[in-house]
Design brief:
This protein is an alpha/beta fold. It is built from 14 helices and 24 strands. The strands form six sheets. Strands 1, 2, 3, 4, 5, 6 and 19 form a seven-stranded mixed β-sheet that branches. A five-stranded parallel β-sheet has the order 8-15-9-10-11. This is Dihydrolipoyl dehydrogenase.
């Protein structure tokens, strides 16, 4: 029986990155995946969603082409072709990951893995069971959509995010339960495609934890797109009929829709992993790890959604490097102080560090710089003048504590703020860095200058507290 230096369970953005990182350092590595490499993110989450988002964004811009002097008829949208394009993108990327694993000499096993004891794994496939040994094991089994028992999720009429990405016909109406980032992204996409969308959120507002000014911009866009939003509202019952679902909302409101999307969170995939048998401790279904991604068993590590630390693909990939380094004898610790996030609504949101609300809740003495897309020459040239850049700094030394973006390319712009934060730059230093003109990143420079009332393209010189 071959004994591997590292065996990785789960081939998502945590698992396949861990396998490649380990192989790059000369380790003997295997990767075990029950389905396709790439995990939920590549196959049933981030990537197919963003492929549809790209289509929705293009469709939205085509409908405004007349603003640029381009006269076209109302675009005819073919959802089946958009879905086929999405699948082609996913297939190409899955193939790319498989080639990377092969090139690095990572042995790929197909099957469902479970721990038998530290250093020993069982792999099951239909009618076949195999076992292998490894000096170190990295668990990267990800998460799955939460399916509340109160909702009859059948995969046909009442769907999770995985199932809605597999539909081939565009629904005429869609009710989304959950106003978090998953629900709001799908709301933007399907509204752009022509579906009548309703979002129901039990909390007082959409996108909890996201900067309120950014959320207000999204809410305005939702209203313009004809999306109906119910906050402070619960879904009390779903009744599935022939080709429709009747929805009972709190307050005795009723709605009848073609499809319902349940987007109320995700839970770690720990079922059947043999954690208890191997002595790996969990809490509320998530694997407990220390700063070095070690579990309660020193030779077993866990990364990504299965730890429930931050359910973000890029965090899983980051944790992969920490786990591999420590499995090979290092002593690295994860640092989550600078973690950018992106929400692909129309318009996009990007955020890193503290939001203004979080900073005020902590009674921090802050100064704020703001800059509007309406004052950006590049945004106006693009016809994308809706949006805002906001930078939060410590009042005493100008350190950047957080930044929020909403508007065109917000998902990309947030990275500049993340780099500045990681480098420990002050707003003054960031504001003095030469930015190319005319570009959207100039807004980051101007927002940084605005912290001290020095933004050239913004009226007023008052410092913002």
């Amino acid at each position: 029986m071959t004994e591997y230096d590292i065996a990785v369970v789960g081939g998502g953005p945590g698992g396949y990155v861990a396998a490649i990182r380990a192989a790059q350092q000369g380790a003997c590595v295997c990767l075990i995946e029950a389905e396709r490499v790439g995990g939920t993110c590549l196959n049933h989450g981030c990537i197919p969603t963003k492929a549809l988002y790209s289509t929705a964004l293009l469709l939205q811009r085509l409908r405004r082409a007349e603003e640029h002097g381009i006269e076209i008829e109302e675009p005819r949208f073919d959802f089946a072709r958009a879905a086929a394009r999405k699948d082609a993108v996913v297939k190409k990327l899955v193939g790319g990951v498989e080639q990377l694993l092969k090139a690095q000499g990572v042995e790929l096993y197909r099957g469902q893995a479970a721990l038998e004891e530290p250093g020993r794994l069982r792999i099951r496939r239909p009618e076949v069971t195999a076992r292998l040994r490894a000096k170190n094991i990295i668990l990267a089994t990800g998460s799955r959509a939460l399916r509340p028992k109160a909702f009859p999720v059948d995969g046909k009429n009442v769907l999770t995010s995985r199932e809605i990405l597999a539909i081939k016909e565009l629904p005429k109406s869609l009710l989304i339960i959950g106003g978090g980032y998953i629900g709001c992204e799908f709301a933007s996409i399907f509204a752009a495609f022509g579906t009548q969308v309703t979002v129901v959120e039990q909390l007082p507002r959409l996108l909890g934890g996201t900067d309120r000014q950014a959320v207000k911009e999204v809410e305005k866009a939702f209203k313009s797109a004809g999306i109906t939003v119910h906050t402070d509202t619960a879904v009390e019952a779903l009744e599935v009929g022939e080709g429709q679902v009747r929805v009972q909302l709190s307050g005795k409101d009723e709605a009848t829709v073609e499809k319902v999307l349940v987007a109320v969170g995700r839970v770690p995939n720990t079922d059947g992993l043999g954690l208890e048998e191997a002595g790996v401790k969990t809490d509320k279904g998530a694997i407990l790890v220390d700063e070095g991604m070690r579990t309660s068993q020193s030779t077993i590590f866990a990364i990504g959604d299965v730890t429930n630390i931050m359910q973000l693909a890029h965090v899983a990939s980051y944790q992969a490097g920490i786990a591999v380094a420590n499995a090979l004898g290092g002593d690295e610790k994860a640092d989550y102080r600078v973690v950018p996030s992106a929400i692909f609504t129309l318009p996009e949101i990007g955020q890193v560090g503290l939001s203004e609300e979080a900073a005020r809740e902590q009674d921090l003495d802050i100064e704020i710089g703001r800059f509007s897309y309406q004052a950006s020459s590049k945004a106006l040239c693009d016809g994308e003048a809706q949006g805002l850049v906001k930078i939060l700094t410590a009042a005493d030394d100008g350190r950047i504590l957080g930044a929020s973006f909403v508007g065109e390319e917000a998902s990309s712009l947030v990275s500049e703020a993340a780099v500045a934060m990681a480098a420990g730059l002050s707003a003054s230093t960031l504001g003095r860095i030469i930015h190319a003109h005319p570009t959207l990143p100039e807004m980051v420079m101007e927002a940084a200058e605005d912290v001290h009332g020095l933004a050239v393209h913004k009226a007023g010189r008052k410092r913002n507290r």
